[in-house]
Amino acid sequence: MEMDSFAKLEERISKAIAHIDDLTQKCRRLEDENGRLKGEVQRLTQDLKGKETALAQLEAESSRASELVKEKVQGLLQQIDQYDQSRLEF
Q: What is the pLDDT of the chain when averaged over all its residues?
């Protein structure tokens, strides 16, 4: 009976070792995947910062262009008003 108990214990220990080996391999794969994903997050974060900078520049340019267009339109409207005034004087 003791031999049967030892055989069962040995079998359980062997299964536990195999399970630990599987978990160790899974842990290594997950650590590798985690490292890869961290690198990808860093790359995407840098890419996002670059795009945010480009967007800010475009917004500034758009604002300047809008102001320039507004000034030009106001100038043209003044010219039209001056033309209309000069026609009324004749």
A: 94
Structure tokens that stand for 30 in this block = 């997950």
Separation of alpha carbons 65 and 72, rounded Å? 10
Angle, CA 33 vertex, CA 28 and CA 39 arms, to 5°: 130
Dihedral sign from CA coordinates of 61, 63, 64, 68: positive
Q: Which two tokens stand for residue 19?
A: 């399970």
Domain span holding position 6: 1-63
pTM to 2 decimal places? 0.61
37 is a domain residue: yes
Residue whose structure tokens are 């033309």: 83
